[in-house]
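Hello again, I could really use a second opinion on something today. For a while now I've been wondering how a particular protein folds. Please have a think about how the structure follows from the sequence. Here's the protein in full, and shout if anything looks odd to you:

***
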Amino acid sequence: MSSRSPDEFRLGVRPYDRGTGTGDEPEDPHELLHRARLLTAHGHPWAGSAWERAATALQRAGGALTPGDHADALDATALDCRGAARPAAGPLFFRAADLHEQAGRRGKALVSRARALVAGPGPGPGATVCARLAELCDRATGLHRIGQAAVAETATVRLLHGRARADLLDTAPDPTAEAAALREELTRLIAFAAPHRADPAVLRVLADTRALLGRITAPDDPAAAQAHLRAALDDHRSGGRLWPATEHRLLLAAVLRATGAHVEAAALLRAALSAGVTGTPPRPTDRARLCLALARTVAGAGEQGRTTPGSEEVEGDRERLSLLAEAVRHTDGPAQDIRVGALARLLLGVALAKRGRHGKALDLLGQALPGFAEDGDTAARVGTRAWRAECLLHLGEPGRAAREYALAAAEARSWDDPRHGAALGLRTAHALGLAGTHRPVPEVHGAGGTVDADAKAEATTEGEAEAETEAEAETEAEAAAEGGAPGGGAQGPWPGLRELPEPFGPPGRYQVDVYGEVGGAGQQADTAPGTRVQGCE
């Protein structure tokens, strides 16, 4: 019995490298089919590309995939769906589930349905999806009892339910209690799967379960989280998974950073970035995230050990700049992750602005804005516009700088903390003064509303915050009048830039940001989304 053509799972965007399809690849379609099955059995990231080549070769030879093979191909392709291709994942998983049912693979069908629910539209699975995953867990357990679902399949459905619960922890009435309950459930899942760890598929689920346990333990017990995450990486190595478990390394490095172990964190990330360590290089977006995390680690190590400026500090600064530039390069292309690409450009732009390279910085910050507009992170947009204004002041364009400050102020006024909007409003007035404009431009439209002439110049807050911010503006205006560089002069960038909320931080205590940090390291905007790990690789 044959299934439909491979066109159904061939995507216009290929998130992964073409992998083994170079030179030494067999031409026989059955050999290609064997290779695709083998890569799927090992959970290899090139499995999706291998299935595409096998299906194409079979089609040319007059054959087609069986329903079971077609289902595996769709699963592998859907797991590839990241960045611009991600919306295709859900439908592919649902189609795979139907084909697994046709092939009599009831356990695999449940896994595909669970993955489809997790990969559905929206920033994350809600309570309804979580309830449906719980139902699939019950069905998987029942099928396992009668021998129609393997241990790996049953454990995978339970793990996906655990991930959905983890994403909802911060919305629970008592997040700490709910996190404790989830830790108990994951411990039971490990006990269920551990006796069968000789099966590579089970070992992969064990590794992912230990990593999730480490994630939700990190905010409450970093030492225990380290143990869980190290065990997860050990399980990957035991299973022969030589390609990077990027998410797990990012999590472990973040926990190490949080406990002050910057040197060990940096070594871990450098090893993950080294192509010589693994047979499969990281995906471009994963490599970009590793670069961003390592740049953060290098910066943290420099701050931790800094006494007086020296050659080590300069070298660390150069490495950080190089890592940020590399992160930007790896986020180019059709499969880019919008969030990671925009963040990389923002960070590199800021780093260049601090070094006086304002023209290049302005270009990068402008490239970042569209990504932030699509993602909806107000902290990122406010920060980017404020830095653009700073660059424009140094480039002698205070009128354009005033507009950027005004747009940033408009969005910042929607935050609970009024100080940021007030400070940015005063910066708007300062820039307008430098431009010789006594009355601002009539209106500026921003995501936070319309900024009229008086609002830009009269932004206020209460008590000491207002007095301190006004004093800063007056000091800077005096420095400019005396011939100092506009926007801060020799004193460097406007100090208020350091006080703005960090972009793309997690929205809660148990969520993960792009650096792998659980709960984040700084102030966060209320609208900042979290990062989820899709599927079960």
Q: What stands out?
A: DSSP finds 21 helices and two strands in the chain. The beta strands are 443-446, 449-452.
